[in-house]
Amino acid sequence: MEAVAKKDTAQKGLPKTSQKPEGRVRMLGAASSSDASGRPRTDSIVTARVPIEIKEQGNAVLKKIGATPTELVNAAYQYVLSCGELPEAFPSLREVADRRRLLTSERKFKIRDRVVRMTLKAPASWEGKTYDQLREDAMRERYPEYFG
User: Fold this and answer.
1) Whole-number Å distance between alpha carbons of 69 and 73
2) What's phi and psi for 115, nearest 5 deg?
3) Would the N or C end of the chain have less CB density within 10 A of its end CB?
């Protein structure tokens, strides 16, 4: 992963500096415009590589909820600052397990009753035989010409 940080100092006649911070973010120095009150802005521009399909889908959702990519990036940075970690895209297995539905006594009884009603009684002739023995008996009965 390559990242480049450049200070926008070319206007002052100073050389640009290049650093390589962690991640794929490219920071292009402070913006030189001013905010609504006339004070100089101290925002920086962040450029990130995002797969085109994800960007398009994400922008559509952002538009639908009335947000901008800038608000998304700011919210992501705020999350990292407050939580000290990246947000998880999907719940962890532990979270899924914790949300598992618990069965009430009534639901357990209904399930047990359905299983009993769906279970077939095995013929007495099957008693004590393995699956392989039962299968061979069935094959002999069905295809006697192959079993002499």
Assistant:
1) 6
2) -60, -45
3) C
**CA-CA distance, 52 to 57, in Å (whole number)?**
9
Confidence (pTM) = 0.39
Residues 6+ apart with CB under 8 A from 69: 58, 59, 62
DSSP code at position 94: H
Spatial CA neighbour of 122 closest among 130, 114, 113: 130
Alpha-carbon distance of 70 to 96, in angstroms, equals 31
Give the CA distances from residue 145 to residues 5, 107, 109, 135, in Å, rounded to whole numbers and listed in that order. 82, 51, 49, 16
**Is the model's pLDDT at 14 over the cut of 50?**
no
Provide the greatest CA pair distance for the chain. Answer: 101
Record the tokens describing residue 148, joined without a space: 């002499």
CA nearest 4: which of 14, 144, 17, 142? 17
- Residue identified by tokens 């973010």 is 25
Length of the chain: 148
Give residue 3's pLDDT: 42
The tokens for 23 are: 């991640």
Torsion of CA 130, 131, 134, 135, to 10 degrees: -150
